[in-house]
Every structure is written in structure tokens, then in C-alpha cells.
Amino acid sequence: MKKTILLAATAATLSTAAAHAETSVTLYGKIDTGIGFAKVDGSYTNPVTGVSSDFKASRFGATTGQTAGSRWGLRGKEDLGGGLYASFQLESGFDSTNGSSSQGGRLFGRNATIGLGSADWGEFRLGRQYNVATRMMAGMFGSNFGGGFTQLNTGGGLGFSSSYWVRYDNLALYESSSFGGGFRFSAGYAFNANDQTAAQTGFATADNTRAITSGLSYNNGPLMAFVSYEQLNPSNKLSSAQTSATPRAYTVGASYDFEALKIAAAYERATDGWFAGKGLPSGAAINGFRGTPSNAFLNNFNTNSYLLAVSVPTGASSGMFASWQRVDPNGRDLTGGDSTSNTFALGYTYSLSKRTSLYAVGSYTKNFAFLSDAKATEALVGMRHSF
User: What is the DSSP letter of 370?
Assistant: First the structure.
């Protein structure tokens, strides 16, 4: 009897251990908080009335998510056998200066997905997640670019690029496993892609703004390169002027790690609108124009965007980065101006440990928001902790 009880207890213990080995759930997060100064200065002409006026605004205070968005999340994977696994990720963004939710107050505004995958066939995921262009741009920089600067569009400028740092709702996304010595293919379709704008809720498929996202990347040793394509199909509930536009973005980029330094470069051609991009510094407004429109449909508004960036390790625990971003608009106005915007940024980070670092970053934008002679300056210091 005692042996039977002992064997049963042993079997239960082994079964529990096996279950734990097959399933994993991880709690993780990042907190990025600092103190910064931002200033915009220039003139604005209302595109409707033609009336011009000067504007000037500045802000000094606490900042959040300047080098990496503050977030917490859960991710997990379950082994289903035969090489197949199930996965999920729930990620919540927040303002670390006051504890409020980001991404319009969503509970899991940064990511909310469930998926199936295998090492041989890749992974298929459903839910709210980044588009392909964002994933490939982030992969081009890598997690340690400049000591952890994952957001290079610092500064008041619209920044590079319109399809970078974009999330789609209701996105079905497939990412292949690596093939051919480092190639990877990704493609997805969003049934209702709207992010910051109010979601359409019509019954018909065409009542919603849909998105196509795709790309091909190569990652082998020090070289990473990619091409991507993004397209938005407007809801038929939008105005006739908007439904006549089909925003598209074609992006190509590459980086090479020389160990002593890492160089990254990218180019994007966007047509018929604007996907996203960095807006005005917090608290600044120009005659009612605030930030960069999200998913703006504007027929014949086109941009050419360029990026050059370099990362240099300056010691075992420190690193620097410098970047130049240029956005050249042509065609119809998006903000009331049509001047080429240039943003220059410089940053430094010092690691106190594997999880905690200090940073300083500054940027200057000329022809901010495409407005001639408008300027934006941003400077800040902060602390970043990962768990």
C-alpha cells in the first residue's frame, strides 16, 4: 500500500514537472522616465483660411518612454507536440510619470496576440501588433543600438518614417522561419487597422480601414537588410476625398556591425497620405494642428524619407548614437507647409547593470512639421530599467 502511494505521488510529481517544462509564461517590462525640455518656434499658415500667425511654445518637466516605451507584459508558449507550439503576448503601455495607460487608454495597447508556430514553418499570429515595416526597422537597429536607443525619431520633427512605429488592430500576420542562410518573409492583413483614430464599426468589410503589410529581410552575421511594403485601404465611410487616396509606403534599409561601430541607413517612399510618425512635443499646438495625423488619407501627398545613423560603444558599460533624418514632401500639403524637414539627434547611455541604465539625448529639427523656418529643440536625461 505504501509503495502504491509512493509511486502515485512520484508519477504526479513527474507529470507536473513535465507540464511545467512544456509551458512557460513570462512577466516582463520596462520603465523609462526622465526630465526634459522641448521647444517649438515658427510661423503657421492655415491651409483653409490662408491666415498666417507666429507660434512659440516650450515645456520643461517629466518625460516617459523617450528611448523605449514604458510597458509591462505577459508572454507565453506551450509545446503542442510534433514541433508545433501555441503562443500569446499581452503588452500594456503606460505613462511612468503618472501611471496612466498609453495608446488611448487601452489595457493592452502595445500588443495583444495569440498564435501558432513551429521552428520549421514559422509563426501565424492574430490580434493587435506591429506592422512588418516596424519589425524590420527595429531588427535593423538591434536591441543594443547606441546602448539601447530603440526610438531614433527623437526630436520635434515628424521623423523617419511614416510607416515606422505603427500598430494595426485585427491583424493576421505570418512570419516565416529563417531560410536560405538568413532570409525571412513576413506578410499580414488587418481587417480594421485603425489605431489612434476612432474605429469604424460598420458591418460590411469595406466599412473599415484595412491594411496590407509585408516584407523580406536578411540577417546573417554583421549584416541585416530588408525591404517592406505597406498599404491602407480606406473605409467607404470616409469622405470622397479620403476614399480616393490609397496610402502606400515602400521601405528599404540595411545595417552593418563593424564591432567598433554600427551603421544603419534606410529610405522610404510614401504616397497618398501618412501612416503615423512622431508629432509635436507634448503640450505644443499650432492653431489647432496637434501632432502628426494618424492614418491620414490625402491624395497626391507624397514623401521621400531618409535615415543615416551610427552607434559607437564607448566602453564596457556605455555607448553613443548619432542620427540624421530627412523627410521631403511633395504634392499636396499635410500641415500647411511643404518644406523639407531635417532632424539631427545625439544620444549617450551608461549602464549601471544589465537591467538599469542612465541616458541623455538631444535633437534639433529644422522646418518642423514641413513649415518653413520652424524649429524644434528637445533635450532630456533619464533612467531606464528592465525587468
Answer: G
> Tell me, what amino acid is at 185?
F
Which residues lie across from 40 on neighbouring strands? Answer: 57, 376
H or E stretch covering 243:
helix 240-243
d(CA 178, CA 223): 15
Q: If we measure between CA atoms, which residue out of 171, 184, 252 comes closest to residue 210?
A: 171
Angle at 102 between CA 140 and CA 385, to 5 degrees: 60
pTM check: above 0.90: no
**Cell, residue 56:** 512659440
Q: What percent of the chain is helix, strand and coil (3-state, nearest 5)?
A: 10, 55, 35
CA distance linking residue 216 with residue 227, whole number of Å: 6
Q: Give the integer Cα–Cα distance in Å for 255 and 173.
A: 25
Phi, psi (deg, nearest 5) at residue 72: -135, 155
Question: Can you name the residues that pair with 363 across neighbouring β-strands?
Answer: 345, 378
Measured in whole angstroms, how far is the alpha carbon of residue 6 from the centre of its chain?
A: 54
Contacts (Cβ under 8 Å, ≥6 apart) of 296: 247, 273, 274, 334
For the stretch 271-287, pLDDT in tens is 998 776 555 444 344 44
- What is the phi-psi region of residue 141: left when phi exceeds 0, alpha when psi lies from -120 to 50, beta otherwise? alpha
Measured CA to CA, the distance from residue 96 to residue 64 in angstroms comes to 6
For residues 125 and 116, give the distance between their C-alpha atoms in angstroms, rounded to a whole number: 7
Within 10 angstroms of residue 118's Cβ, the number of other Cβ atoms is 13
Confidence of residue 257 (pLDDT cuts 50, 70, 90): very high
Q: Give the span between the Cα atoms of 346 and 182, in whole angstroms.
A: 31
